[in-house]
TrEMBL record:
InterPro entries tied to this protein: Gate_dom
Keywords: Membrane, Transmembrane, Transmembrane helix
Pfam families: Gate (PF07670)
Ranges where the record places region Disordered: 1-33
Domain Nucleoside transporter/FeoB GTPase Gate: 50-133
Protein name, entry field: Nucleoside transporter/FeoB GTPase Gate domain-containing protein
Transmembrane intervals: 68-85, 91-113
Top-rank taxon, per record: Bacteria
Length: 167
């Protein structure tokens, strides 16, 4: 008489079935759980970004509508010409260097930059951004924040000039 098949061996990952394949007990597949965690994490990040980006965009739009952005742009245009950027991008650089990278990018959105200008501005902001926050971190790490600030601003400006020449 044929011997009845024994039940599959249990493991920490579920039940080991035919061919060594693990099947979960309890019916909950890990994919929906992972998607749920991923969506929650995504919405938290979006909310954090919105808290910094939306106010920066609003400030630039108010300055634009009030005529102040044109005044600032006119004053900054000669310096920004070195980087191939319009004068108004000086405000985006100022916001990015004081508040943070995403705020600087958000401040540049209303300016209507082209691909070359976005590349230059984005590179400059990636090198040099959020100085007040990062200065405290740099000081705690034991470096001189003023030296690091000067190095980052210099590297950012050099990258802007070089990209303007080669793009």
């Amino acid at each position: 008489m044929a011997r009845p098949a024994s039940p599959p061996a249990a493991t920490s990952q579920g039940v080991k079935g035919e061919g060594g394949v693990h099947h979960r007990q309890g019916g909950t597949h890990p994919f929906p759980l992972a998607v749920g965690r991923g969506l929650r994490s995504t919405f938290r990040v979006l909310a954090d970004l919105a808290r910094t980006m939306i106010p920066a965009m609003i400030v630039v739009m108010i300055l634009d509508r009030s005529g102040w952005l044109a005044r600032i742009a006119g004053l900054a245009a000669p310096a920004m010409a070195w980087f191939g950027l319009p004068g108004g991008s000086a405000l985006a650089l100022l916001i990015g260097n004081t508040v943070g990278l995403y705020s600087g990018v958000a401040a540049a959105i209303p300016l209507g930059l082209d691909y070359k200008q976005w590349t230059i501005l984005g590179t400059m902001l990636a090198i040099s951004h959020a100085h007040p926050v990062e200065a405290s971190i740099i000081a705690r790490a034991g470096a001189n924040p003023w030296t690091v600030l000067a190095a980052r601003l210099t590297a950012s400006a050099a990258a802007g000039v070089l990209l303007n020449l080669v793009l």
